[in-house]
């Protein structure tokens, strides 16, 4: 990051080079090395973690599909063609059509967007809130810690799907409410894991040193504790994306998540998939495969990330 | 040990009260009125006097705090009350559906243990070999595959295979018949849902077995056991596996407690009348007493399964001293 900022300064500010030539010469070399080291890092990751690379590729493909759905999808995900209902896969409809004559391939591509929006939003909101609560709970300890632990106990004891059912029943369906429903149970899970790492860090002498220097709580938490719990946090984030996608699919399948006509993989499996299971099995097969492959990709990548970030596992 | 159990049971009380408060508030935040739904099911306009009478009958006209205190007090006496929707005792409603869910949960657990421990162990012993890669991929696929989709695909496969073999499609039965009355019918009903739920369960346990075994296999005492010429089979079974199973036992216990939640969707796919389905119906019908009882039952199972796992952990590993 540092290298790339300075490299752009090198490219833009010719006059600055005159005054700070020695510094810039050094950093320019650093900047030229930086992309190469990034590339080397990626190549090393791919060589060491072939399964993780497969996961990363799957995630990137799904992300690309979701981002550029308008350009890739051959049909509108909501347009019906009543002359082509439950058509098997063909060149005209790569994954066939559903019982309303909608193109499944287009719906799956647009569904990737819904899945990734829900997955990333839940993981980011749930993860970051959990991070703050977990580190804060470990750092301050005492009554706050005790109280937060009991609250986490209550939320964690609630099955995810039941909590989501209640939240959806209160606020109604739709992408935003699904995000809220799935995020609530993710927060304490993240907080628990982060707290256990943060408790160990709290006892390390540099935290005492930071306190002795007179730094405030916010600075100690953000600058000294949070960066040190980043490894388990990042691994958990990748797992959360997958879990959130699965939870969204389950809720939509139950009719409690994303509502029609928004294309969502779980919603595509509701109704038609079972009804036409024997006559049009592609209606059931392709959306399920899309969910499984995406979560599979995130899980593989998360595992590889854990191995790469944990020196103990790396040695093995 | 007794002091530890007592302190854990005491710690469970705030969790249970918190869960009771949460479900109580959540249910009352859901828009709508069970009396209006119940009385208006015929489609006609609802008489406000009838609604008021219904509220009085169900105790919904009393102050909310009194309703909550009643709920907690009754729960502490294991009195779950009467279902607001069906009018039957909640305990009866749950008891009618519990055997089917319990059977699926137990079968899924047995399936998970039978698959996870041998495969996880082999995967760890053959680390980074093709077997390891295959097992890991199968395990991650198990975590990634939605159980309801696996259910749909398995029904599809059964339909196609039965059609091809017997000339007519066959569907597993959906009504519960106790095992001792008709074992074949009972198993044909429960086997597919159990495998569907069990695959994910097995996948999670397999990964845990593998990583625990990898951890243990690098311990000094394993090297010592090998150095003194002990048979590899004994090193694995007696020294490594016995110690590696500790976290696996924990995970199996916790996952079992989570199974009720997992069964919600699976029972929907297989059209089974179990506790999971009852949960969805209770929330949709705004049946406060039934939903509250089901949530409290799930939370209690979760809390005490955790306690049982911790005690089992201490019993399996004498180095762990609780208290």
Which keywords apply here?
heterodimer; A: 316 residues; mainly alpha; 16 helices; disordered N terminus; B: 323 residues; 12 helices; 0% strand
Task: Describe the fold and architecture.
Chain A is mainly α and 316 residues long. Helices cover 77% and strands 0% of the residues of chain A. Chain A is built from 16 helices and no strands. Chain A has helices at residues 2-12, 14-19, 21-48, 50-67, 69-72, 104-140, 142-157, 160-171, 175-202, 205-212, 217-225, 230-253, 265-268, 272-275, 282-309, 311-315. In chain A, helix 6 runs parallel beside helix 9 (175-202) and helix 6 (104-140) packs parallel to helix 15 (282-309). The model of chain A is unreliable at 1-32 (pLDDT under 50). Chain B is mostly helical. In chain B, helix 5 packs across helix 8 (183-217) and helix 7 crosses helix 10. The chains are: A mainly alpha (316), B mainly alpha (323). Chains A and B meet through helix 7, helix 8, helix 12 and helix 15 of A and helix 1, helix 6, helix 7, helix 10 and helix 11 of B.
Determine the N-to-C terminus distance of chain A: 30 Å
Low-confidence stretches of chain A: 1-32
Beta-strand percentage range of chain B = under 5%
Instruction: Report the span from N to C terminus of chain B.
Output: 6 Å
Rounded to an integer in angstroms, the radius of gyration calculated over CA atoms of chain A is 24 Å
Nearest-integer average pLDDT of chain B: 84
* Shape summary of chain A: globular
Q: Uncertain segments of chain B of ≥5 residues (pLDDT<50)?
A: none
Largest interchain contact: A-B, 45 and 51 residues
Q: Percent of residues of chain A in helical segments?
A: over 70%
